[in-house]
Write a structure and sequence with these properties.
The protein is mainly α. The protein has a single domain (4-179), classed as Up-down Bundle (Four Helix Bundle (Hemerythrin (Met), subunit A)). The chain contains ten helices and two strands; from the N terminus they run αααααβαααβαα. The chain has helices at residues 8-29, 33-57, 62-91, 96-100, 106-120, 133-146, 148-153, 157-173, 192-212, 216-239; strands at residues 127-129, 177-179. The protein has a two-stranded antiparallel sheet with strand order 1-2. Helix 1 (8-29) runs parallel beside helix 3 (62-91), helix 2 runs antiparallel to helix 6 and helix 9 (192-212) runs antiparallel to helix 10 (216-239). The longest helix is centred in the first third of the chain and has 30 residues, at 62-91. The radius of gyration is 18 Å and the shape is globular. It starts with 7 loop residues before the first helix and ends with a helix.
């Protein structure tokens, strides 16, 4: 395929990802968390298709790689940071508690660090080392929407959230192997962990959605992904 226009297709998807992240951030700052989370999901879809298009048309490039990381940090770093910030801001009073809400933006900083490490780490071709930024963003987006009332009513809710921010930032850059949903084949033996995760995640997400119209199952599925990666990490790395 020698069409010069093809090389622009992946970067177009990447720019759409970045725009989705910008709209998600805008929505979060305007106290529209559902829209913010929706735009994060849309950005994740564009993020999938930019890599898919680059492989399909064999048009990957250094500028595309850098642009992808920049877009990902807006959609999966800044946008969830903004959602956590508005959640903490609504829970905090004046003085120190209000200032502590800005700690949410540490998520964006560690997401940038995680993306930079990913670009340089040749070990992450088929698995991840550390929590992927899209998974972290989906966790926080769903958590901020489904748990806002519970965290507000909980006396130490803001401190719990700040502790979770610290744990997630550590997971982003930790030397912990985590499986990727990349299939070399569709055999059960080579993809056992992936199939188990997908099947169980459908139930984890669907049950709260059906019973109480809550998207809490999304962040629960991310927690399950982390736990399953911890339980199967060495075996997953050996199989890939």
């Amino acid at each position: 395929m020698d069409n010069p226009l093809l090389k622009h297709i992946p970067n177009t998807f990447t720019c759409c990802n970045l725009l989705s992240g910008a709209l998600a951030t805008y929505s979060a700052f305007n106290y529209a968390p559902t829209w913010a989370f929706t735009f994060i999901i849309i950005g994740a879809v564009f993020d999938f298709f930019d890599g898919f298009a680059a492989r399909l048309f064999h048009v990957s490039s250094p500028i595309g790689k850098e642009l992808d990381s920049l877009a990902d940090n807006i959609t999966f770093g800044l946008a969830p940071s903004a959602m956590v910030f508005t959640l903490l801001e609504g829970m905090s009073g004046s003085g120190l508690m209000h200032v502590l809400a800005f700690a949410a933006f540490i998520i964006a900083a560690f997401s940038a660090l995680r993306l930079a490490k990913f670009n340089l780490d040749e070990r992450q071709a088929h698995t991840f080392i550390g929590l992927p930024t899209p998974a972290n963003a989906l966790f926080w987006g769903a958590f901020c929407i489904s748990m806002e009332e519970q965290m507000t009513e909980l006396g130490n809710g803001r401190w719990l959230i700040l502790g979770m921010v610290a744990v997630c930032c550590w997971l982003l850059v930790a030397e912990i192997p985590m499986f990727a949903l990349k299939f070399k084949s569709f055999s059960w033996k080579q993809n056992k962990v992936r199939y188990i995760f997908l099947l169980t995640s459908i139930l984890i997400i669907a049950i709260p959605l059906v019973t109480c119209q809550s998207i809490a199952g999304v962040w629960m599925a991310i927690v399950w992904y982390i736990l399953l990666s911890l339980l199967t990490g060495k075996r997953t790395r050996q199989s890939t």
